[in-house]
Amino acid sequence: MTVPAFLNTIEQTGFSIWIRESESVFAYYFILVFHTIGLSLLVGTSALIALRLLGIAPSLPLLPLRQLYRLIWGGLWLNIISGILLLFAYPTKALTNPFFYLKLALVGLAVWVMMSIERRLLGDASDVDPAMLAKARLLAVGSLLLWCGVVGTGRLLAYTSSYILYGKIM
Amino acid sequence: MNFAHLHLLLNHFPIIGTIVGFGLFGASFLGDGRHTDLRRSGLIVFAVTAFVTIPAFVSGIGAQQMLAGDPVVSAVIERHEGAALLTLWVVEITGALAVIGLWQSHVRPQPTRSTLIAILLCSIVSMGLLARTGNTGGDIRHPEVGRGENATVIEGTIGAVVHAFEPTPDKFSEAMVASKWWWAFMMSMHFIGLSLLIAGIGILNLRLIGFAKQLPIEPLHRFFPWALAGLGINVLTGMLAFIGMPEYYTFNAAFWFKLLALMLAGLNVAMFYVLGTFERVKRLGAGEDAPFSAKVIAASSLVLWFAVAISGRYIQLFQETISTDLD
Predict the structure, then answer these.
(1) What CA dihedral angle connects B261, B264, B265 and B267, to 10 degrees?
(2) DSSP secondary structure letter of residue B202
(3) Contact status, residue B92 vs residue B235, Cβ threshold 8 Å
(4) Do the bridges between strand A168-169 and strand A163-165 make them parallel or antiparallel, or are there none, so unpaired?
(5) Distance in angstroms (rounded) separating the CA atoms of residues B88 and B172
(6) Which residues of B are less than 8 Å from A36 in CB distance?
(7) What confidence tens digit (pLDDT) does each residue in B64-109 have?
(8) Check: complex ipTM more than 0.85
């Protein structure tokens, strides 16, 4: 497979080089820190909501859980922005790795599940419908598994790349 | 101060802590066996001991580097390290069981019988293994206690039996780093553990500060065991990673900063319960504001746990930030 040349163009921009090579603590690792904080907010809050739907802490009311979605979407935006910056630093490394696309697909599915939970289960009509309850458990399990998949494939990106930079095979 | 000082400073705490914890815990069964305060104290001491055992264990690698070179000393050190590698897990399991016992005494009148028996057995095994780890450690620079100048490692009968269960340090390290898939799995679990900590402690702290105030405290606190499970996953995967690349972490300033933040975060959690803050906030319902003292503890908890995560992320950048030239 030929690696598209525009990835090289991105890597040679001053900004990309700065993120990668600067010895400042505010460069690459600073962005990674934000990616980690975003992950912990996004996955941690989603896990709490999923566990509640699976029967942990049944006395916790469902409706106010909607407020926690500010953490979920805040974490997601933090990770979209920090993720784009990380992609800017190592575009070839990420885009030539199949796990990168798998991770994005899993993020998309997990976000869809979290939106479904917010819309269908934490809505104003909090009447407990048995059919809904079965769906709640399915969505909760789905959310937990998908987020584990996101974390796992994300971590694999660090160890499974074929290229580190354009033209530089690992 | 160097790593030898640090190791000598820390390495008595696991032994003393386990003995004191055992004394308190064991005494709680005497008489009518209903000394719940004694039992609780014993369990807290076991949990604290398991926490402090982490820096005690990891400081050993730096201390070892200071004595590198002498083949007799190296063999004695390797035996001590093997003993420590076995003891570590039993001490950590004792601490984890003690935390489970403390949680059980929170949600029911007292811990279950099986938890109590498991804690008793593990703490007894801990004491035996700690005695051996202490002895083999003492042999490293106290030749007058045992053998002469040109001694090799000689095991007694009990020592030989225990030694059969002790990992060989180099092989243990190799097993951890042999496969990138295993390493990636451990690191993934480490991030999942972090997320569970946020689910069980982070969100409770945010609620105490005033975020999402419609959530009542007591039901939210039901997720606390999930944070403990996350912490357990992270201590396990973190220690396995350390064993995989001990020098990489030992001479890394970010790693030691992370451990310091972790110890303070643990202290913060202990204060939340021991100072009675939890008792004051647990009945807070929807919309009710937590007292200022609780907000201070919650805010410092958030700062400390994120300090642990952030310094962990900086370990890769801070390679070889502590001099390996220790003279």
Answers:
(1) 160
(2) I
(3) yes
(4) antiparallel
(5) 14
(6) 191, 194, 309-310, 313
(7) 888 877 777 788 899 999 999 999 999 999 999 999 999 999 888 8
(8) yes
